[in-house]
Amino acid sequence: MAAPASVSLQDLTGNFTLNKKLSSSPEAMLVLQGIGWVARKALSMAPITLHVKQFSEEGEAHVHIAQTAPGGIQGALERRAFNGKEVEYELPTIGKIKGRSSMVALESIDDSFLKKNWVLEAEGTLMRSCIDSVDNGWSANQVWGFQEIGGKRHYCRNIVLLSGKGKKDRKELLFIYDYLGSYTEVQ
C-alpha cells in the first residue's frame, strides 16, 4: 500500500513491509552479511514487518526499527541517531558494525545509484545510513526516502553494498516498502 502524505522523513513512524515483488532480492546482501543458507531461505519466505518509530531528542532525529515475522518472532532492533556521529554496536545476525546516519541534501550524495528516483519533500533532505562490518569486511551505504513506484508513493531504500579486496565488488539494491498502517509497539 502507498504511504500516505502524513508519513514523511520528518515523521516516518508507522509499520511497513518489504514489497518482495517490486524490490531487489535481498539474497546478495544476506550472503555478504554472512547469513547462513537456512536463515536466508526463511527470511526470503516470511514477510517481515518493520515497526518504525521516529522521534526527536535534543534536536536530532532518531529512528528505532523493530523487526517481526509472523507468529511474533522478533528480529533485530535498529537504533539510529541521524547526527553523523559514528557508533559501534553488535547485531545478532550480522555481528559487530560501525555506523553513522545523517540527514543529507540530494546534492551531497556523490553516487548516481544512491541519488536515483527520489521524490523530495519540502525540507529537501533524505536519510543516509552508512554501515561497515567490523568482522566481515563489507560496507552498506543506504539512502532512505520516498519514491513514486507505479504511480504510488512508497518508502524506499537505495542500497550500495561493497565487499571483496579493496571493496571493489559492488551490488545495488532497491528496497520498496508497503505502508501497513499506524505504528504498533513490539513487546
UniProtKB/TrEMBL annotation:
InterPro entries, alphabetized: Pericyclase_pydY-like
Protein name: Uncharacterized protein
Organism: Amylocarpus encephaloides
